[in-house]
Each structure stands twice: as structure tokens, then as C-alpha cells.
Amino acid sequence: MPSVAGAYISWGNFIGQEVIGKVVDYDAVGGRDFAENPCPQLQVDLVTPAKSINKEGVITDFEAGEIIVLNCGQVSLKRAIRAADPAPGDVIKITLSNLVKTKNGKVKEFAVAIARGAAKDSKSAPAAAPAQAGNPFGAAAPAAAPAANPFG
Q: Could you give the CA distance from residue 149 to residue 47 in angstroms, rounded to a whole number?
């Protein structure tokens, strides 16, 4: 992935933050982690809205149909993405599933699901459920699963 188009997603500290989209490109060593070591990089065409939250707490909203980039540098995410081995045409769902306190701070744990080839005939999905109080990433799942979201 020499030239990557799309906005970068940052993972906040809210369990439930997720990215669901069509894999446009995947490079197992195309990204850089916080120590500038190679890590997996995904380019994703969103099928549901997503949020990015930076270190200052600023939230950026992305709509279905936008292209985003994920550098998968966190240990749990790096491991899960490498195991999933996504390919263009797959639909991927990445969820911040847990925050674990360690002696060195918080570790983010991620859940990754892949629907192989599911992006071939899908369309962008409608907006997700409204946010729950205190959590800008909303409910765990929309009331009715959008057709383009094979994870329901």
C-alpha cells in the first residue's frame, strides 16, 4: 500500500467503539505502531458510521461510504488482524471490546470478525443507534441489522 487514501482512525477508551466496512486493501507490514515498528494496515470503506477519538478526546465522525485507514499497532489488534488475514472484498468488524488495567497502564483488547467476500454486492448501511449517555459509541448493536452488515 504505497499511497494510502483515507482518514486515520484513532481508538479512544470507550468499550464498543467499532469499525465495520469493506476491506479495500490490507498490508501486513504497511503501517507503523507507536514505536515506529511495522504493523498491519487496513484501508476500509465504511458500511456503518464510525468515530475516531484522539488523545485530546476530540471525536471525529465518519459516515458510511467514507474510506478510513487503520494502523493496527496495539498488541491485541495486531494479533487479531494477522490471524484474520483480511483481503479485499471481505467485510470486517473491529470492536474495542475491553480495557484491561496492567502495571504499565491500560491495554486495549479488540474483537475482530470477518465475513469473507461479503462486500461484493453490499451497499452502505443506515446510521447506527443513538449514543448512550457517557459513551459516544452508542448501543452495542442497532435494533435491526443493516443489509450490508453481515455481523448483525
A: 7
- Write the pLDDT tens digit of every residue in 4-40: 567 888 998 889 999 999 999 999 999 998 899 999 9
> Alpha-carbon distance 146 to 117, whole Å?
17
| pTM of the predicted protein model | 0.76
User: How is 40-92 classified by DSSP, letter by letter?
Assistant: EEEEEEESS-EEEE-TT--EEEE-TT-EEEEE--SHHHHHHHHHH---TT-EE
* Cell, residue 53: 477519538
Rounded CA gap, 72 and 120, in Å? 24
